[in-house]
Design goal:
The structure is a homodimer.
Chain A lengths: L1 E7 L12 E7 L8 E9 L3 H6 L14 E11 L9 E7 L3 E4 L5 E2 L16 H14 L6 E5 L4 H12 L3 E6 L2 H9 L5 E4 L6 H8 L4 E6 L3 H8 L2 E9 L3 H4 L11 H7 L2 E3 L10 H13 L7 E5 L4 H8 L7 E5 L1
Parallel strand pairs in A: 8-9, 8-11, 9-10, 11-12, 12-13, 14-15
Antiparallel strand pairs in A: 1-2, 3-4, 3-6, 3-15, 4-5, 5-7
């Protein structure tokens, strides 16, 4: 059978363009013993993929590579003992509509009572990143002030809500008035800043955080982060989850020197790898499911339909087109 | 009796100058009940005092303030129950050759078998900073690579040696060939870099750290730190003890964006306040004394003689005039 696939045609310079990708076709052979034929259902597009193209996130993506990311698929045919047709699986999969797989690294998905796409959003690595990074690194305490950047995104929108559940005052920074309204009315954030229409983000942060900032959950880096980190309280914690403002940098870039602030304010600035929390994923998923079931945690997905639109969805991340997790339905 | 004192006459712009200080005189009254007359013996000059003048380190020092820092003094006369003439005390003291004090916050010094000045160096906050920050934040493990900046200074020279005692490969960065020789021959560092004569610090770090860097003990900030942090291994720890390169900044300055590296490499970047380790000072001092007694830890002091030379000694910190701790003997 014929399958579609998407390759990185060339490394992007600055924000990725459709021309950096190409759609190809491949004839799939029959499956052999131990193999599965998978039909891809949902594919996750994520900012870290851009960092792979810049070489910062390892292993890098180079021109000619078939793109890959987390995806949910259905087993169509199986010559492997562990899987049967109809099974839904999660794994790092190449961007193909159908593919042959040896089953390694795939997780069979139970029925969580939530749509399958949730395994790429709130019950997947973005929800788990929000949960573990905020609780383990940010260590929120009641009455502390938490600022979240990229707050309408997949991780930020969950992190801010968990902050609220833990008793923090939560201020979100995002790129449109609609997003700010959504964070306040739907997610329960205390306040929000639309950085695109706010002339002085720092002044806005100051006025919304009269007691300073105890935790900064950062998804963006760049000037927004400079403005926030400048206003941290002593012993503040900066959870560095992403740095989307820097992934498209074409020059080496310049920024506010961060180290003096780390000294002056005794800050903790920390990155993390969500895979390192693997042993605790069940705990995290359980907690997130409880909150969802209790109506205390909203999760949003921006779902684009059509395999061919994967590049468009990915590029949309850098244009702020998503509320919550950006996912392509194949 | 007449006492001398030193005020901050004006806030320095860039590197402090002698003209930023002035020497004054004051008639001391007789001591009253509860008071002590102290004769200052040794005064510590430290880079963080410059940060106080820039407002970054709180509380700030402003023009007209009498300078103050850690000092060792002798009780000359006492009208307080807790102290008797001849007692040696440690405390934050104004820069005066004689002073009247109410005893609050003073620590009576036992005979450690080391010179009294050691309470301002290896047994004082600089030695304790090296010990606690390296072990608690840096968490050195055998065979890891530790890079120390400001490595010939008060904290760096101790931190590097403790790294060696814990089995690390230790590379020091300092500002002269003499200092590099001293670190290698006297302190047992594996290698050193004289950043003043090395055209490309980053390349030198790369060639001396073929396995990357696991711990960076930073006393300087600025371009040296950028070069080192760029070469950290995944899960590297950056212990931010000082940022002397930035204390004299007159503009807001620019630097390498640090946050993307924190994401890519899952780094920990942390500052600290040595006073927060107060409950464990006895442990730290005990450990440092053991190592000194066993001949495993060298400590150096650069002692300038004469109260009037306090400004010169302080300014000397920014000209790299010290090996080990800079102290003025009154």
């Amino acid at each position: 059978m014929k399958s579609k696939l998407i390759r990185l045609a060339s490394l992007p310079v600055g924000i990725p363009q459709e021309a950096n990708f190409n759609l190809g076709f491949e004839e799939l052979p029959a499956i052999k013993a131990g193999e599965l034929l998978l039909k891809t259902l949902y594919i996750s597009v994520d900012p870290y993929l851009r960092a792979k193209m810049a070489g910062g996130h390892k292993p890098p993506l180079v021109a000619g590579d078939i793109m890959y990311s987390r995806a949910v698929a259905e087993v169509v045919a199986s010559a492997a003992a562990d899987f049967k047709p109809g099974d839904k699986v999660l794994g790092f999969l190449e961007w193909r509509d159908y593919l042959i797989h040896n089953g390694e690294g795939l997780t069979r998905l139970d029925d969580s009572g939530l749509p399958l796409s949730s395994y790429l959003s709130v019950l997947g690595s973005t929800g788990l990143s929000a949960y573990f990074a905020l609780t383990d690194i940010g260590k929120p305490k009641p009455c502390e002030t938490l600022v979240v950047s990229g707050a309408a995104g997949a991780v930020g929108s969950i992190a801010g809500q968990i902050g609220k559940l833990m008793g923090c005052r939560v201020i979100g920074i995002a790129g449109s008035n609609e997003k700010v309204d959504w964070m306040k009315s739907q997610l329960g954030f205390d306040a929000g800043i639309d950085y695109k229409t706010t002339p002085d983000t720092g002044a806005a942060v100051s006025s919304l955080c009269p007691d300073g900032i105890d935790i900064y959950f950062d998804n963006v880096g760049g000037a927004i982060s400079d403005a926030v980190i400048n206003r941290m309280n002593d012993y503040g914690r900066v959870v560095v989850c992403g740095s989307i403002a820097n992934y498209n940098d074409t020059a080496s870039g310049t920024g506010m020197p961060l180290l003096p602030l780390v000294v002056y304010k005794k800050l903790l600035v920390q990155g993390f790898l969500i895979a390192d929390y693997k042993a605790r994923f069940a705990e995290g998923i359980g907690r997130l499911q409880q909150w969802i079931a209790a109506g205390q945690l909203q999760y949003a997905e921006t779902i684009m339909d059509g395999f061919d639109r994967l590049p468009e969805a990915f590029i949309g991340l850098f244009e702020g087109k998503n509320e919550g997790k950006m996912i392509v339905r194949v």
